[in-house]
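User: New here, any thoughts?
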Amino acid sequence: MVASAAVLPTIAVLGASGVYARHLIPRLTAHGYPVRALARRPAAATVAAACGADVRHADIFERESLTAALAGCDVAVNLATSLPGPSGRGDFALNDRLRAEGTPIFVDACRDAGVPRVLQQSIALVNAAGGDAWGDEDTELPPDDSVAGRAVAAARVMEGSVTGSGLDWVVLRGGLFYGPGTGLDDDWFERARSGRLRLPGDGHDHVSLVRIDDMAAATVLAVERWPSGRAIIVSDDAPARWRDVFGFVAASAGADPPAPGGRIGFPSWRVRNARAAELLSWRPFHPTYRTGLIR
């Protein structure tokens, strides 16, 4: 008698029309997981639909729609964001509100729907140490009233909603996303070619990057291995100074080196990914910007 194959858990992905989900959902379905794709505008979740996911309407601020859409799922992955990008869409204040006010509604809906496991996207910026210092999951960035400081404060509220929920949780703290669909590196190259690329400040600060496809791969491993009750930084192997990253972009574009004096958007941000390697057996396919930014 042949034993029946194990039934894989049904994975709900909130924020199914976003770039992170557009990389994650094809990987989940390729691994055989049934996926419930939740989006405020289901018609925009085209990649999810193309992959055969069950696309449903859900709004993170609407507990009833969330609860109905989550019913019958085993794991809920919250990727909902509203970050501004080069296209001009999104808003930092709305994104902070979504994290601080929307996530508690999401958690309540998971409890109402009987979803036992929650995976929450977060940001490794909460672990920035500043300067040349390294940070890990136990490092805490001191609060301030900058845009980055408010984003970190909202992320901490978001994480607290999940970790204090009584549900079985995992938090993935991503580095700065770049790569296909993000628009970030496309914007860097376009500005380099037009002579408008500027270093943040003098370019000495560090940035911790992760290509979006590497982030999605780590998320699939987190679903499979489920390191319960752990927060995990997902970033590439070699945080770099902005002057090196932007210098590489400019040289690759055949442009002059970028001048200093641009806006400083983040504190210096140099984090380790050792916990992801240990708990997820994850290594980035693009260990540095030098492979991830090749055109």
User: Anything to note?
Assistant: The chain has a mean pLDDT of 95. The longest helix spans residues 92-113. The chain has ten helices and 13 strands. The two ends are 53 Å apart (CA to CA).
